[in-house]
Amino acid sequence: MEKNEYTLPPETRIGHVHLKVSDLQRSLDFYCGLLGFKLTTTYGEDAAFISAGGYHHHIGLNTWFSKGAGPAPRRSVGLFHTAILFPTRRDLARILQRLLDADYPLTGVSDHGVSEALYLDDPDGNGVELYWDRPVEEWPKKADGSLEMYTRPLDLNSLLMEIR
User: Fold this and answer.
1) Residue 5 covered by a domain
2) Can you tell me the mean pLDDT for 44-71?
């Protein structure tokens, strides 16, 4: 039997992520109050759906199996982080300034060649990456033409110059 190769259409996107949280209001305060998502709807008292730009939802939050629970162990299987793509470097600088103004701790900052990223944890310890992609024509390439992604320090002062 010949194996049929299948690849997803290039327009395929990940539509949303749904997170188990311990305190719905605390999560809404973080994702909507700090990061700027908008609440689109609630589902009973234990779930909420939030989005950017009017989409039905980019993130679902629920306490169905996790109300009052502590964070998942860091060294276990599960979601490493949710990555939130910002349209421009200036937008990433604006959210960085917002996090700094709120004294919200970052867990890391990186230049990956193809993107620049800020890392933090939500109130339940779920990893969050806030990033922007450089234009495709600027992505670093290896001699064979494949991507050369890396992790280097991100110059936060340079990033903040986008808004100063």
Assistant:
1) no
2) 96
